[in-house]
Amino acid sequence: MITAFDTHYINDDATTACVCFEDWTDAVSTQDFVEITHNVAPYEPGKFYKRELPCIVSLLQKHNLQPEVIIVDGYVWLDENQIGLGGHLYNELGGKIPVIGVAKTKFKSHSKVKEVLRGNSQTPLFVSAIGIDLDEAAQHIENMQGNFRLPTLLKKVDQLCRRIVTI
Fold first, then answer.
1. Alpha-carbon distance 112 to 22, whole Å?
2. How far apart are CA 115 and CA 45, in angstroms?
C-alpha cells in the first residue's frame, strides 16, 4: 500500500487527509482518512515539521496504517544536509518506510531534489526522497495517473484536507 498525506490549517486547527492506493498508476484510492487536530504547534520558519509531523503520525497510528511508501506534500530535504518534513517523518518511523516529498513550490535547488514535469505543464513538481532512490521516486510521481501537473490522487488528498471533497 502507498499512502499520500496532506494537511490544511485554519488558525490552530489542522485537517490531515490520507489516501491509500496499491499501485503508482491507480486512478482511485482504496481507502481515505481525514482527521482534525486542534491546537497544533504554531508555524516556525524552517521548522514546519513541528506543526505537521504529529498530525501525520497520529493518523497513521489511529488507523494502524502500514504503508510500503509514504508521499508527503512538501520536502524530504531542504538542502544537501538539512531534512524537511519527509525526512523527519522517515526518522520518526524508524527509517523503515521510504518517504517521497512532492512540493508544488521551489525552495532551493540542490542535488537531492528533482524537478518533474507532468502532462502539458511547464511548471515542475519538486520531488525529494529518503529510503528510496531519488530517480525511482521521481519516476513514480511522473507515472502517477492524471493528465495534469498534479497527479489525480495527490489532488484528491489536497481536496480532502481542504474539505473541497468528502469521504
1. 26
2. 23
Please report the domains of the chain, with CATH numbers, ordered by start residue.
2-161 (3.30.2170.10)
Strands annotated E in the chain: 2-10, 13-21, 31-37, 69-73, 99-103, 114-116, 125-130
Cα distances (angstroms) measured from residue 90 to each of 20, 108, 121, 137: 18, 21, 30, 15
pLDDT over 90, % of the chain:
83
Distance CA 149, CA 104 (A): 9
Nearest to 92 by CA among 145, 41, 131: 131
Q: Alpha-carbon distance 56 to 130, whole Å?
A: 17
82 in Cβ contact with 16 (< 8 Å): no
In the predicted model, residues of the chain with pLDDT beneath 70 are: 167
